[in-house]
Amino acid sequence: MFRQCFIADVDANAIVYDLEDQDIISDGDLKEVTRTPSRVEQNQFLHHCLKRKATKDTLVQVCDIMIGCRGNSRMNQVGKEMKIALETGRCCL
User: Fold this and answer.
1) Spatial CA neighbour of 14 closest among 77, 84, 85, 76
2) Residue 24 has what DSSP assignment?
3) Mean pLDDT across the chain, nearest whole number?
């Protein structure tokens, strides 16, 4: 539901360390994102990881991290929209 917005507007590099710190993604996933030079490919890989591994609760955590990240209002907005969709049941795994 949010794949295109996620890939276009998220800054994976800005949130990947927080995601690894909260055990949402693995150290290997973190390394893959940070090694990938293309922002679009970083976002595609992170989206794929989250789609494979995340639960509803961890996705809400991801949304909170995206919302709390300063300097990227578009990513903040995607985080807010995803969180609302998860909490209202419009978005499911």
Assistant:
1) 76
2) S
3) 93
pTM: 0.89
In a domain, 93, yes or no: no
Domain coverage including residue 79: 3-88
Quote the tokens at residue 53. 């591994």
6-30 burial, b at 16+ Cβ within 10 Å, e below that, comes to: bbebbbbeebbebbbeeebbeeebb
Give the total number of structural domains in the chain: 1
The H or E element containing residue 63 is: helix 56-68
Distance CA 79, CA 83 (A): 6
- Residue 89's pLDDT is what? 82
| pLDDT 10s digits, 65-76 | 999 999 999 999
CB distance 36 to 69 below 8 Å:
no
The per-residue b/e assignment along 69-90, b for 16 or more CB within 10 angstroms, e otherwise, is beebeebbebbebbbebbeeee
